[in-house]
Amino acid sequence: xxASSASPAERVLLDWLEAHIAxxxxxxxxxxxxxxxxxxxxLVSAHGRWFTPAVLPAQVRPLPERQCFANAAATEREHPHxxxxxxxxxxxxxxxxxxxxxxxxxxxxxxxxxxxxxxxxAYLGIVLxxxxxxxxxxxxxxLEAPDSLFPLLRNGL
Length: 157
Fold this sequence. Notes:
By secondary structure, this protein is α+β, with helices and mostly antiparallel strands.
């Protein structure tokens, strides 16, 4: 997506992502020498894609706020035609992006059981391969937890 075709919320997310990458480029991160990506921001920038915000379908139940990673994993298990996605999103009416997880349908429509009432206005993330998706209740994202993130940064997807 080019910056000129981005929605205002997508532009906020892109600017935020670029600012994080620029800051990390100014730091001396010896611990990531030889890694494919120096940060989750570079990983999502390289492999992420935009997802289209959509209304929560009637067959998908809303789940508690502030538990997006567990909610998205549970929704994927309940609805096998959906896929777990992890990345960054901007909640409707919010001025700032946050780490977030949601599900997506085969057409790239967001199925977000966590933000079901107010929705999101921009979603940029990665549909993780099945081997990397959470299989049990988690309170953190695959792209947040060191045990799952560091191998992705070292080796890529």
